[in-house]
Amino acid sequence: MKALIPAAGMGSRFLPATKAVPKEMLMVVDRPVIQYVVEEGLASGADEVVIINSREKKAIEDHFSPSPALEATLRSRGKDARADAVHHAGALPVSFVYQDEPLGLGHAVRCAHDVIGNEPFFVLLGDVIVPDNKMLVRMKEISDQHDGANVIAVLPVPMEQVSRFGVIDGAQVEDGVWKVNRLVEKPPMEQAPSNLTVFGRYLLSPRVMELLASAKPGAGGEIQLTDALDAVLKEEEMYALVIDPEDGFDTGTVETWLDTNNRMYARMHAAQ
Ligand code: G1P
Questions:
Q1: Which structural domains are found in the chain, ordered by start?
Q2: pLDDT tens digit string along 141-181?
Q3: Which terminal Cβ of the chain has fewer Cβ within 10 Å, N or C?
Q4: Ligand 1 and 226: CB distance under 6 A
């Protein structure tokens, strides 16, 4: 199974830092944030990660390409641990497709339809780090229990925050798992069907990819992945894994990025 990481956004919340550096390349402790997301995909059973990039963000491709000259220099100076880290980043099985126009998350995912073909696939949004790499594995288990159903991760948030997210309507079927009946992207608080918000980890059927081909612009005038998920419910089942705030660290704003750096630093030191 492949894992898609959409990474073609403009990173406007981080300007001017992201004027020349893609927001996915901002550092969390010792590596760019997107490297954690790539590693999570690979640790969770994905055999390849496909980054949906914009053509301007070449630094992401450079990061995942081999750097033999840099590696050799580091080794000649006895810096083997750093050389190993450089080698590791350049050897991760990552490929790229391109989103040439910023038409929304659904459009970005659709740009990978040729590489996905008729297989289920993961989507991992790059704004969040899942440090223990267990979320996608649990989602796959839930999918397997329900004949290959679609599965998404959802996070309960205070009602005042729901309008920033995709929100599900559904019913609990077991502890921590809901069956989804409807999804709505960025509803006003009064119209939100629950406080369970789409978190940024998805296990989706190839039918979702097909539906994206004819998706129309939705919230914010963008082609929304959430709308294709809502559309697929007429034909297929979807389950939602309810996660804990401690399961994922957000990096989507300057404030949460700083906080995540501190939390990951503490975590990595505790592990040593
Ligand atoms: C996207 C999705 C939304 C989801 C959110 C999670 O929105 O469209 O459904 O809840 O990611 O971060 P964005 O943050 O790109 O506006």
A1: 2-271 (3.90.550.10)
A2: 999 999 999 999 999 999 999 999 999 999 999 999 999 99
A3: C
A4: yes
